[in-house]
Q: What sequence folds into this?
C-alpha cells in the first residue's frame, strides 16, 4: 500500500482450495476518515468453507463499499453487490444486483434481485443492525420450476411458486 495526502491505497489477492478473493481500496485517515473498497470473490467453494459435503458450489460476486465509520450505529455507507453466475448444488444462479445504504444503525436495501433457472427473488426493506432496532423486509419469489431449489435442500419435488410477503421484527426475533 501507499500513503499520500492522508490517504492509504491498498490492494491484495488471496487464493486457495476455498476459492479466490481480491480487495482494493483507499482509506482516508484525516480528520474525516472514510473508505472506498472494491472486492471480488471468485470460485468460492461453500463445501470447503462450511466443511459439509452436501454444499457443492461455485460462488462468484463483486462488490463496492463507500463510506465512513466502522461502528454499526455510526456507519454511513453505500454498498453495491453484484452476484455473478454461480452454482449452489444443482441450482445455477445467473446473477443479480443488490444496492443498499447503511446509516443510523440500519441497512436499507433499495434493490435486491437474484435470478437463475427460471427463479427470481426480489427483496427491499430495512434490517436493524442493533438488537433493539426493528427490521422490515418485503420479498417476492417467483419460480417456474421448484425442483432445483428443493434439490439445494436435498429434497425432491416439482411445482412452481409465486410468493409475496413481508418479514418484520427485531433482528433477535429472527
A:
Amino acid at each position: 500500500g501507499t500513503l499520500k495526502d492522508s490517504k492509504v491505497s491498498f490492494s491484495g489477492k488471496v487464493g486457495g482450495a476455498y476459492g479466490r478473493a481480491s480487495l482494493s481500496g483507499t482509506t482516508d485517515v484525516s480528520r474525516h476518515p472514510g473508505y472506498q473498497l472494491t472486492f471480488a470473490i471468485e470460485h468460492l467453494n461453500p463445501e470447503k468453507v462450511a466443511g459439509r459435503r452436501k454444499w457443492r458450489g461455485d460462488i462468484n460476486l463483486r462488490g463496492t463499499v463507500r463510506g465512513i465509520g466502522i461502528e454499526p450505529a455510526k456507519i454511513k455507507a453505500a454498498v453495491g453487490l453484484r452476484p455473478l453466475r454461480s452454482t449452489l448444488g444443482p441450482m445455477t444462479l445467473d446473477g443479480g444486483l443488490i444496492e443498499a445504504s447503511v446509516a443510523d444503525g440500519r441497512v436499507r436495501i433499495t434493490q435486491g434481485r437474484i435470478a437463475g433457472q427460471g427463479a427470481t427473488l426480489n427483496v427491499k426493506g430495512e434490517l436493524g443492525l442493533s438488537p433493539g432496532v426493528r427490521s422490515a423486509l418485503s420479498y417476492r419469489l417467483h419460480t417456474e420450476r421448484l425442483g432445483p431449489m428443493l434439490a439445494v435442500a436435498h429434497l425432491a419435488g416439482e411445482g412452481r411458486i409465486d410468493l409475496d410477503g413481508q418479514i418484520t421484527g427485531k433482528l433477535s426475533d429472527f
